[in-house]
Amino acid sequence: MTLTTGLWSTSTAMLPRSPEHEAMHRCATWCRSLDPVELALPARALRDNNVAKWARDHGLIVEVRSSGDLATAIGTGIHPMRLVVHADGFSADELVFCSANLGVGRVVANSVEQVHLLVSCAVRHRRQRVVLGASAVDAVAAVLNGPRLDLVGLYREIDSGKDCFTGFPEMVGDLIAEMADVRRRHAVVLTRVWIGGGGFDFSTGPEDLSELGQAVEMTLDDACATLSFPRPVVVVSA
């Protein structure tokens, strides 16, 4: 019986994974390799039903950059509070719908005009969390002065000429310096560093991901220690 069980276990282990298990394994490997850096999943990845299920079950952050992305995310059952909406990809009416009607978790705003639009549609029973993709002083002030808006972090995409392995750690240092300046000017401590770009996609292997996560963490440690800034959460966009 023991021999039979052992042979059965060995042969079963050699069988190829099902599509569902393969998708779950891929997602789990990405998140585990990057940890403690968080992964923001692009909405288009949810077209794979198995990835969508894994994202729902594990509460992953999902980025939406267009109305098509939004339809995909909502259609696969992602809770609106897990969505990060990039305002540049939406019309004014669509952005109002995302914030006031859906109650999405975060909006990445890239202009003072987008911030003012969020202020105009703010609802009394909730506060809208905002991540700024613009470094302008007036954009920061617009969020901080806006009723029922909370500035929680900064978003940047690295230049196309840099890959994520060099660009992400460098950008982390730059953003911590910007966040320290916001604290100095406004007495507000931001808690999210958000980075995208640099060809960062699902072809990146687990060893490279682990190396990237460690490089980001080392830069974060150094920048926060130098500027006496509380460690924020770092999120990267795939």
Structure description:
- With 238 residues, the chain is α/β, with parallel strands linked by helices.
- It has a domain at 158-232.
- The chain is built from nine helices and eight strands.
- The protein has helices at 2-13, 19-34, 49-58, 67-75, 92-102, 112-120, 137-145, 164-186, 206-227, and strands at 38-42, 61-64, 83-86, 106-109, 128-132, 149-157, 192-196, 233-237.
- The protein has an eight-stranded parallel barrel, surrounded by six helices.
- Helix 4 (67-75) links the parallel strand 2 (61-64) and strand 3 (83-86).
- The longest helix is centred in the last third of the chain and has 23 residues, at 164-186.
Brief digest:
The chain is α/β, with parallel strands linked by helices.
**Terminus-to-terminus distance:** 48 Å
Helix-strand sequence: HHEHEHEHEHEHEHEHE
Major beta-sheet overview: 8 strands, parallel, barrel
Strands, count: 8
Question: What proportion of the residues is helical, as a percent range?
Answer: 40-55%
Q: What class, by secondary structure content?
A: alpha/beta
Task: Note poorly predicted spans.
Answer: 1-15
Say what oligomer this is. Answer: single chain
Count of separate DSSP helical elements: 9
Percent range for β-strand residues? 15-25%
Query: Strand sequence of the main sheet, in spatial order?
Result: 1-2-3-4-5-6-7-8
| Principal-axes shape call | globular
Mean pLDDT: 88
